[in-house]
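Incident log, structure service

09:12 report received: a user says their structure output differs between two submissions of the same chain.
09:20 pulled the input from the user's history:
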Amino acid sequence: MKKLIIICFMFLFLFLASCSNTSKDNNNTLTSKTSETTTNTNVVEEDIKEMFIYIGDNKLKVELENNSSVKALVNILKENDITYEAHDFGGFEKVGDLGFQLPTNDSYIDVTTGDVILYTGSNLCLYYGNNSYSFTRIGKINGYTKDELKEIYKASLGNIEVRLSLE
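09:34 re-ran on a clean worker, output below:
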């Protein structure tokens, strides 16, 4: 009986010792990935202040905000353009699912014509009217009237394809 207890303790000791080494390896991996993420975020710090939205033949310049949502979006756009389909909502915006999640910086804001807004971390909204809610502001399209943006966004005329780019 004593031999069985001793053998059980030996297996328990070996098991705990192997778990301890695995944990250290995992921590090193996490640290390494965190360092890479920090480095990637610092790359964005080169202050990219604009992106472009393409709808049909229209190229709209967006003046970007300075927040972690924008930095994450810019990092993605450095690799590839993003294309998504947007639909009408509420008679004041076109909204579409990006297909991935971005960090949010939500605060209660008043939204006006030309605002580009992140909603629930994965939906990008292009405003041609007014709204108030807890959103993350991505940027602003300036130089267009409400009617001009409604025409470009084909407001109330169905879905549109939207392409986001840094060029």
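09:41 both user submissions now match this output. Likely a transient worker issue. Closing.
09:42 reviewer note: Strands lie at 50-55, 58-64, 82-89, 93-97, 107-111, 115-119, 123-127, 131-141, 160-165. Helices lie at 2-44, 68-79, 146-152.
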